[in-house]
């Protein structure tokens, strides 16, 4: 059964990388000596090696080793044999492009369905939805498809940002963009604020962290879900 | 020779649609009784008819008639025979998808190269660059390609937004996203603030409006270009 932590962000303002999640990750990955890291989203274009080193430093604090998927001959084998898997944030287009290029999108979905514990942050969370179509990222590379892992019965908008009512900027607000998505698509969207995450155990989906999340269902007024809310009802939509 | 106005936004805060541009549009389209409007970007998902009506109301103030491309049997004929053309803003993915679906991307580029006067705002400006890869929009639909009209020797980022140094939000700033683009692509990017536009006459490209624009060239520090700057030097890069 699925065993996932899907977080809006890796890092909170003024904190170190993964700091707020580490106590939860120590439990989540308690049976793992080593986790497999997927660095493909390359935030700011950093190399796979640099990115994996940042993750290594964070996981060392909870005595878990980290190995980057780029260090393996066969990325499929790496995924299937991993004790736990973490996909970090960065650019979702770059991440999805690379997952398809290495032909491991399906493989990763199947492995996570079987129960390998997983952490996603930001772009690594986006890919857990049905599609990557509510990413905030720039389309800096053309992926062969926008379809992603489909582990959730909805899509995510990580780093969800409330509208600034005092702004004089005329670009679309985050909410306007998501409502626009629903003019063309019916998949529900969960706007996950920084500090929130989803805890998924099998079909049980629970909102964690101190904040509410904003749920967008096509043709309905957006609503706020409180922390500890159960999102299983979205399976039946 | 090309004759284009390429604007960051259709509308300034507190103004009506196209208000700040109308005096310039009266000159730009002075030989046009009717212009062809391309409403494909559908801001907020509005219909082609609704969008064309908004544009009709604005152009009526300068005594120019507006006809939507959806009103024509053959969109290629509509483009080739237009006295002037305007592509409005909205979602760039939806716009590019529809231009390809109707098989008119190449046709539109060729017509504008020959000198039909053109106005683009926001998404309608984005498509004038080499690719749409520095749009701010959500990928709510999957276009067959990110390549666009290629009328400019660079890409645009409309609605360019300076970083808020006080923000505690951890999502990428606009500048960070553009620098990330340059980790994977070499095309120069011009960040065009709301109120700025480019005036293109043949190969002459001039920055207009009261504001500076931010130019990003791969492996160089971003620089501010003042209003009335000449951007022709980008052709030689």
- The CATH class of chain A, by name, is Alpha Beta
CATH topology of chain A: Rossmann fold
Tell me the strand percentage band of chain A.
15-25%
Largest interface, counted by CB within 8 Å of the partner chain's CB: A-B, 43 and 43 residues
Number of helices of chain A: 7
Helix content of chain A: 25-40%
Rg of chain A is 17 Å
What spatial order of strands do you see in the largest sheet of chain A?
3-2-4-5-1-8-9
Give the low-pLDDT segments of chain A.
none
GO biological process, one term (chains A, B): proteolysis
Family (chains A, B): Belongs to the peptidase S51 family.
Keywords (chains A, B): Hydrolase, Protease, Serine protease
Organism (chains A, B): Flavobacterium psychrotolerans
Topology diagram in text:
Two copies of one chain form a homodimer.
Chain A: E1 3-7, H1 22-28, E2 34-38, H2 48-60, E3 65-68, H3 75-80, E4 85-87, H4 92-101, H5 105-113, E5 118-121, H6 123-126, E6 155-157, H7 174-184, E7 189-191, E8 197-201, E9 204-208, E10 213-216, E11 223-225
Parallel strand pairs in A: 1-5, 2-3, 2-4, 4-5, 6-7
Antiparallel strand pairs in A: 1-8, 7-10, 8-9, 10-11
């Amino acid at each position: 059964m699925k065993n996932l932590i899907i977080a809006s962000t890796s890092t909170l303002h003024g904190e170190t990388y993964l700091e707020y999640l580490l106590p939860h990750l120590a439990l989540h990955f308690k049976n793992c000596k080593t986790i497999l890291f997927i660095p493909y989203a390359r935030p700011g274009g950093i190399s796979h090696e640099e990115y994996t080193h940042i993750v290594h430093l964070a996981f060392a604090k909870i005595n878990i080793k980290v190995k980057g998927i780029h260090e393996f001959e066969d990325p499929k084998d790496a995924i299937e044999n991993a004790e736990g898997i973490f996909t970090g944030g960065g650019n979702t287009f770059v991440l999805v492009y690379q997952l398809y290029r290495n032909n491991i999108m399906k493989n990763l979905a199947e492995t996570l369905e079987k129960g390998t514990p997983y952490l996603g942050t930001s772009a690594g969370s986006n890919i857990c939805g049905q599609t990557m179509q509510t990413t905030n990222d720039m389309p800096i590379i053309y992926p062969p498809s926008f379809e992603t892992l489909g582990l959730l019965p909805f899509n995510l908008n990580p780093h969800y940002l409330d509208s600034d009512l005092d702004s004089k900027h005329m670009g679309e607000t985050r909410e306007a963009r998501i409502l626009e998505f629903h003019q063309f698509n019916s998949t529900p969207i969960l706007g996950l604020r920084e500090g929130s995450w989803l805890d998924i155990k099998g079909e049980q989906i629970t909102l964690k962290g101190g904040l509410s999340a904003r749920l967008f269902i096509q043709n309905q007024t957006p609503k706020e879900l409180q922390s500890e809310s159960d999102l299983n009802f979205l399976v039946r939509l």
